[in-house]
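A.,

Following up on our hallway conversation. Structure tokens first:
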């Protein structure tokens, strides 16, 4: 796992009463050269005090250790049984309810991601999928991510054996059409804590109990040596987020370089793992054309990906963009465009950049990839119906059923396994009713 240097370690007392959970904590702390005795054990009624203590921490940004790697680690026991989840929260007493819920183990168990009605409302195209999460927070510190930019702790669920039996297994059985499942966490990069965490070994073992069921890890990291010997590796698919040189140096502090991520993918491919890449988000920095062309060239020099996806930075207003990323880092044309269209894109999921500028980026990236590979499947991720209709010919895919990076029916190969309600994406031709 990453060699984090947390300023503090906190363990909810219910974790210590579960042998598997406690062993998991001890493995992680041992990997960080932190004795268990240095951690603070706290009760539920002390959770707000812990949150206030963590919130008061001032990162040492002059340290050689990225401050994102200094965040506190909080180990909790995920509340899985309905009666336990229904237990009332203690009074917040100055702590946010969201933080309190995370610290006390009220993590979301399963997320119905990209439900058709939601995508219809947001004018977005993706695939409906049931996602799993067992932690909240990440060491990468991506500036466009609220958790990455400002969070001061990573909350880690420890009772994974129970989670796999009571959450993952029943969800697989309740959704027989879904063949591929994502173990994502919430604002998290779970792969950075392996193999000590052991989430993927348990996840793959559970998937292997069923025919044609596969699992994704989605990472912006390079911590992959655990994959070489993990049991049931044939059930695993790797997806890497990539950026540009400015992105890796400034916008995604705490994360490895693109070259390191691609080298990690190369190693995985040498072990037989399917590898896929996403430029999500694609950040239109001042020198974006040259920087992304360089990253794309590195991909094809080192690997043979199953797919490559693109998604221009979105999910925010112009004002929010300026608070997250220094506008001086960005291509002035994109800053002007976002400012001019700020009001009309205020409540639009694909903002802050207007359609025409995003399309310019996609066309460039498509052309760059095609210089190296004429056939690798390309797609745009969580984009609008109108963008798909404009670019589907250049992408060479049908927006109603397309190969992407981590959809629910795209097994290694990649081969599509459509079934029942999961035979199509959430795309609906904007010109047709219903």
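Then the amino acids I'd put at each of the 434 positions:
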């Amino acid at each position: 796992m990453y060699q984090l240097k947390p300023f503090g370690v906190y363990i909810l007392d219910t974790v210590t009463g579960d042998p598997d959970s406690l062993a998991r904590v001890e493995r992680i702390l041992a990997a960080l050269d932190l004795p268990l005795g240095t951690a603070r054990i706290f009760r539920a009624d002390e959770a707000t005090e812990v949150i206030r203590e963590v919130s008061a921490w001032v990162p040492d940004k002059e340290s050689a250790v990225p401050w994102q790697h200094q965040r506190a680690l909080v180990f909790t026991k995920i509340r899985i049984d309905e009666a336990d989840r229904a237990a009332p929260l203690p009074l917040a007493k100055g702590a946010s309810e969201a933080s309190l819920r995370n610290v006390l183990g009220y993590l979301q168990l399963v997320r119905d991601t990209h439900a058709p009605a939601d995508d219809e409302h947001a004018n977005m195209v993706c695939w409906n999928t049931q996602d799993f999460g067992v932690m909240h927070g990440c060491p990468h510190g991506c500036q466009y991510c609220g958790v990455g930019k400002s969070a001061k702790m990573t909350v880690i669920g420890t009772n994974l054996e129970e989670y796999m039996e009571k959450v993952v297994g029943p969800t697989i059985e309740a959704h027989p059409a879904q063949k591929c499942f994502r173990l994502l966490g919430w604002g998290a990069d779970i792969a950075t804590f392996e193999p000590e965490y052991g989430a993927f070994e348990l996840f793959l073992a559970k998937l292997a109990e069923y025919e044609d069921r596969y699992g994704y890890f989605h990472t912006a990291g390079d911590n992959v040596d655990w994959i070489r010997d993990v049991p049931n590796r044939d059930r695993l698919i790797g997806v890497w987020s990539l950026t540009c040189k400015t992105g890796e140096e400034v916008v995604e502090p705490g994360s490895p370089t693109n070259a390191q991520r691609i080298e990690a993918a190369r190693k995985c491919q040498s072990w037989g793992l399917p590898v896929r890449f996403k430029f999500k988000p694609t950040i239109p920095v001042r020198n974006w054309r040259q920087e992304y062309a360089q990253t794309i060239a590195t991909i094809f020099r080192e690997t043979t990906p199953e797919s490559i996806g693109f998604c221009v930075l979105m999910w925010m207003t112009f004002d929010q963009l300026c608070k997250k990323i220094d506008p001086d880092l960005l291509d002035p044309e994109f800053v002007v465009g976002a400012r001019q269209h700020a009001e009309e894109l205020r409540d639009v999921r694909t903002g802050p950049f207007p359609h025409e500028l995003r399309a310019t980026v996609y066309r460039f990236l498509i052309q760059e990839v095609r210089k190296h590979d004429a056939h690798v499947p390309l797609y745009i991720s969580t984009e609008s119906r109108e963008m798909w209709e404009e670019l589907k010919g250049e992408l060479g895919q049908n927006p109603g059923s397309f190969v992407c990076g981590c959809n629910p029916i795209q097994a290694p190969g990649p081969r599509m396994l459509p079934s029942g309600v999961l035979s199509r994406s959430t795309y609906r031709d904007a010109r047709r009713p219903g």
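Residues 108-131+164-169+200-416 form a domain with the pyruvate-formate lyase- activating enzyme fold (CATH 3.80.30.30). Curious whether your intuition agrees with the design.

B.
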